[in-house]
């Protein structure tokens, strides 16, 4: 099993919270001092981990599971 750093996990939660609040990838990237590609990578990882079809579905699942 691959270990994920706590920094990456924290970044994914940050992205998930902001995405759930309706921010765009560009806005999230600005808030993270990162680029949009990094945000997209985090969103892909989040959706895969949650089994979500898209960012809205990921937000819904994360709220149901009290992750955010």
Measured distance between first and last alpha carbons: 25 Å
Helix content: over 70%
Number of distinct helices: 4
Radius of gyration based on Cα positions? 11 Å
The average pLDDT is 93
Give the strand content. under 5%
Largest sheet: none
Q: So what's the overall shape?
A: globular
> Would you count the extended β strands for me?
0
Low-confidence stretches: none
Oligomer: single chain
Give me the strand/helix succession.
HHHH
Topology at a glance:
Blueprint: H1 6-20, H2 25-32, H3 36-50, H4 55-64
Helix pairs in contact: 1-3, 1-4, 2-3, 3-4
Task: Give your account of this protein's structure.
It is a single chain. By secondary structure, the protein is mainly α. It is 71% helix and 0% strand. It has 4 helices and no strands. It has helices spanning 6-20, 25-32, 36-50, 55-64. α1 (6-20) packs across α3 and α2 crosses α3. It starts with 5 loop residues before the first helix and ends with a helix.
Q: Briefly, what is this?
A:
With 68 residues, the protein is mainly α. Helices cover 71% and strands 0% of the residues. The radius of gyration is 11 Å and the shape is globular.
List its traits:
single chain, globular
């Amino acid at each position: 099993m691959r270990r994920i750093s706590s920094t990456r996990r924290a970044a994914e939660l940050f992205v998930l919270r902001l995405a759930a609040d309706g921010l765009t990838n560009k806005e999230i990237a600005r808030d993270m001092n990162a680029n949009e590609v990094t945000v997209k990578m985090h969103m892909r990882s989040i959706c895969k981990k949650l089994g979500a079809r898209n960012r809205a579905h990921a937000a819904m699942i994360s709220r149901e599971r009290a992750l955010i």
